[in-house]
Amino acid sequence: MEKSFSRSIRIAQELKKNISQIIQFSLKDPRIVTMITVSQVKISKDLSHAQVFLSFFDINQLSNVKKTLIILNKSISYIRKILCKKMKLRIIPNIIFYYDDTLIKGDKISFLLKTIIKHNKYTDSIS
């Protein structure tokens, strides 16, 4: 029977916390101009690979998001070096950063639902 709070979940939570701190405080790249939030970390069962999903505060230009992801993916070795000092793990997972657009999709769905509700209220008041 699998534990309800497995080791991989705890490590993923610690990675999320530490990576967000590293991006916010230790990464001093002037090309990164937007605020970055680590929304989720998915880690493999053998703890050797981690997918880090990021959301950006200012997403007006998709090209800036792509450039920021390229910059972050090039600085993975530096981030892993700092993670080695912060976390007491035998193997620090290989990290790959991905863009998380679930907030944008959620806003679009919410907007569509609101317009449907308004449309239904309008058509109900006419009939």
TrEMBL record:
Please name the Gene3D superfamilies in this protein's record.
Answer: 3.30.300.20
What does the entry list under GO cellular component?
cytosol
Checking InterPro entries in the record gives: KH_dom-like_a/b, RbfA, RbfA_dom_sf, Ribosome-bd_factorA_CS
Question: Which GO terms of the molecular function aspect are on file?
Answer: ribosomal small subunit binding
Q: Does the keyword Transport apply?
A: no
**Quick check: keyword tRNA processing in the entry?**
no
Its GO biological process annotations read:
maturation of SSU-rRNA
Quote the subcellular location field of this record: Cytoplasm
Which keywords appear in this protein's UniProt record, sorted alphabetically? Cytoplasm, Ribosome biogenesis
Question: Mind telling me which PROSITE patterns this protein's record contains?
Answer: RBFA (PS01319)
Whom does it interact with, and what assembly results?
Monomer. Binds 30S ribosomal subunits, but not 50S ribosomal subunits or 70S ribosomes.
- State its role: One of several proteins that assist in the late maturation steps of the functional core of the 30S ribosomal subunit. Associates with free 30S ribosomal subunits (but not with 30S subunits that are part of 70S ribosomes or polysomes). Required for efficient processing of 16S rRNA. May interact with the 5'-terminal helix region of 16S rRNA.
Entry's NCBIfam families? rbfA (TIGR00082)
Q: Which family does it belong to?
A: Belongs to the RbfA family.
HAMAP family per UniProt? RbfA (MF_00003)
Q: In its UniProt entry, what is this protein called?
A: Ribosome-binding factor A
Q: Which organism is it from?
A: Buchnera aphidicola subsp. Uroleucon sonchi
